[in-house]
Amino acid sequence: MPSPSRPSDHPSDHFRPHEQDGRPGRVVRRGIRRAALAGLLLALLGPVAPNPSWAAPAGASQPPAGPGSLGAPRGPASAVAAQGPPVAPRLTRLPIPHVPADKAGAVSASGDRVTAATTRVGIPFDVAGVTFTGAAPAGMRIELRTRTTHGWGAWLPVDVDSEDGPDRGSREARRQTAGSAAVTAVGSDGIDVRVSTRGGVVPPDLTLSVVDGGSAPSDATLAPQVPADSPSVDGSAPATAAASLATATASVSAPAIVSRSAWGADERLMPCQPDPLAGFKAAVVHHTVNVNTYTSAEAPALMRSIFAFHTQSRGWCDIGYNFLVDRFGRIYEGRKGGLSGFTQGAQAGGFNQETLGVSVIGDFTSVPFPSAVRTAVARVVAWQADRSAFDPASSVTLTSAGSTRYEAGVRVTKPRVMGHRDLSLTSCPGDAAYPQVPGIRSAAATQWRAGQYAGRPGRYTPVAARRFVDTRSGLGAPRAPLAAGGTITIRPSGLPSDVTAVTLNLTTTAATRTTSVAVFPAGLAPRSSSVLNTGPGRTTAAAVTVGVGAGGAITLRNGGGNVHVIADLAGYYSTGSSSGLVGSFRRVLDTRSGLGAPAQRVEPSRPLTVTVPNLPAGTRAVNLNLTVTRTQGSGYLTAYAGGSARPSTSNLNFVKGQNVANLATVPVGPGGTVTIHTTAPTDVVADVAGVFVAGSGSRFTPVSPRRVLDTRYGWGTRYGSLGGGRSLAVSVAGVPGSASGVAMSLSATGATLPTALTVYATGSPRPVTSNVNVTPGQAISGLAVSGIRSSSVSVSSTSGSVAVIGDLMGYYGG
Description:
single chain; Jelly Rolls; six-stranded mixed sheet; 41 strands; 8% helix; N-acetylmuramoyl-L-alanine amidase; PGRP_domain_met/bac; Amidase/PGRP_sf
């Protein structure tokens, strides 16, 4: 999207001129301001500093999409319609002069001598703050008081740097100006500031900024709206385009939210674009301090003032908080993109890459959050927790990037919903509000649990593979490629009424761009997940096991471009089925070495029938991870029960010289036999990943597909690509400790060398099997069925380095 149009490129055009009351273009919001200006015409105002320079954001409002999409959808920047033009705040910058030692008579509350001070009256403003150049001098303390018609208020200590703001060393931090927190002071027309330091040193460019948020006709009638569930579109891996990783809501509905356009955000004030994230791991509760007396109509002006101070005085990319809540319980969209995506805030310095910030507008040092505020904060936290797939009642380990409480690199375990003081040396969110955080956490967790998809445990019934969707021919869907954001909702025929999940093989072809396909229970909006990644010139297949919605229906969704979709049913889970999964992980076929069959390639004219050894009595089907290697041409592979007719379906597709792996759940024929057919000569490797045995074994519980691992963002594990010969442990959130196995869509991208990924139970020996094979320049996905121990699995790679992404589809046992 191009930058918003504007009458001039000069930065001063983005602020309202300093106008007298009653003149055209000036709307006075408060009678106090009229009285104050009339009575203080002779007050010394001091010079108004030029507006700070800024660079209008160029190009798209989010980083452009690129290759390597892995089910990281993004939606529109705002899902709520605009309610009028943006309102340009008026910012005034005033120097804070040094107080010579021989003239100083005041001391701060800490007893240090005041080294710089200023008093200004006759300037109506809503927000104030202090900035300076360089590091804060030792023991620096900033205190201020504001004046309204009731007179001067009490002195208020103001946090200096590092309590909120960008993470140290980040792109946003490198361009920021040092300073204080924003102090809300709606209805004020005077301010007194004093600065003290232990050594009497005054930092350079010590400046007071006051911001008048202006007014708009809609301020008095502003009402929040519920953002529509935005369609998922594929994003891009950070290595290629910093990735616009956004997602639609899942099963917890979005609360009513006042959008940026509705509260009058002037997007031209943004000097840069905040970084997108894959999701949040926890939520941090804040307050903005100072004033609790603002009216409902004045709250939008406070939003605009905080926005202007953060971007124009502090130099941040955007308003620091992801969401804000006024004292009446209205929720406001903070950082751009928060309605449809995940955007890194500047709210908890040192932990912004992992946390969501929700700030309540007001001072809750001596008074608690009102009931409406507690409800609103819990609602937005529950919604965001659902989109990010974390339980608000649980704990999480976070890694500090450097805060006032924790040095960089320190790992801390905290509740998923916490106060700002839990991460930094600050009193935020106030002494009276902080004891309310556990209640907010509990309320958010209750809402989160109520909104989770509740799949019923079931056992498996294999079927003769059959095709039920083919957009090329119009089978089960319109005869047309699936467009970007397009969905197909289908119910495979012949399923029982108690069906809980289905296993299918999904194939895509004729993609017009790099894209991902998500599959999820019908009736749910997708989270950030995918089961298949493909691109132009590729025919790609991936196995899928997914829960069903009403009537046994599932929904397929395409991320970007146009693509044809083919789906083949392999079996289903139901409460009345009798076959459970028995863990068994071993290699049973390798035609390169002669394991399980002669040491020769499988030829199109000579299907290979393999006897799977050591199967328990009553085995009805096996999970086979099939890999083709040393392929001699382009073609596909089909696996089916020995002694049965070959179905008109496929399990994986390949081109000459390519290594491709995919899981196939295959019924077994007499004597535990499976037949493998290929349309081009190739070597085949088969690894057993569990067998389904009648009358025993574990049941499968489907979940709403959710991301549990992304090494690109340190999601579920450490940050950074997985190196060859190494493994990483992944804590699979939402899986009970008693579970015996998981079904996970495993994706790989950004490989530096051809490599194979293997998933296995943490603490167990690494097997010689593989789940996904990937080459440089390729993004590939496949279903991995693995054992699990204490809710943890491990992922290993054979060579080079590679980014690994995992989406949980469900678990066995438990």
